Amino acid sequence: MTAHAEHLPHDEHHHGPPVPHYSSRMTPAVLGMFLFIASEIMLFGSFFTAYFFVRVVAGTPWPTPPFHLPVFVAFLNTCILVTSSFTIHWATTSIKRGNVWGLRAGLLLTFLMGLTFLITQAIEYSRIGFNTSDGAFATIFFCLTGLHGAHVFVGLSILLFMTIRAFRGHFSAEHHHGVEIGGIYWHFVDVMWIVVYATVYLL
Fold first, then answer.
1. Could you tell me the residue range of the domain that residue 157 belongs to?
2. Nearest of 121, 137, 117 to residue 68 by alpha carbon
3. Per the domain annotation, does 5 fall within a domain?
4. How many domains does the chain have?
5. Percent of the chain's residues with pLDDT above 90
6. Does residue 96 contact residue 162 with C-beta atoms inside 8 Å?
7. Which residue in 22, 88, 99, 151 has the fewest CB atoms around it within 10 Å?
8. CA separation for the pair 162, 178 (Å, rounded)
9. CATH number of domain containing 77
10. In this predicted model, what pLDDT tens digit does every residue of 149-193 receive, in sequence order?
11. What is the DSSP letter of 202?
12. Residue 191: Cβ-neighbour burial (10 angstroms; 0-12, 13-18, 19+)
């Protein structure tokens, strides 16, 4: 050690970048998830732009005869997905209070409801009576609902990983950021479906 280094204050011996200071209101991981969701909203926005162009500008009948949309089945699926938002919220609030069993039950119920939603949508596709080659209406329908279905699949993968970790005891009242971040994504999936359902099936 040189004579110059010996006279440096203790803090100046630190090598590498300075220790980051995080906001107490939002961790970098949560901020990153919100930024990711913002990019996903823009992706959905491009598909909704195509939807409004087809319906409003081009004046395409919705649904185009003789096709029909399974509004009631979609309503049941909406109820399932909205309920799953409450169970993921239950899971998150439970672990913040140190309730591990509430966390596990909430995550498991959320996963099962999300899986039910996806299976129901797959059955709906198989029975709907049209495909992407049947005009602009059919193409936009499958694009919007399929894009959301892909996000549900991603959400289910995250939920499965979270549930496995929960049953292995990886989360606690002090360490639960993984649950919080996954919950934010699942709430986004739920809200986006409400928008898709109202736009595609009801308007």
1. 25-202
2. 137
3. no
4. 1
5. 62
6. no
7. 22
8. 7
9. 1.20.120.80
10. 999 999 999 999 999 999 998 888 888 888 899 999 999 999 999
11. I
12. middle
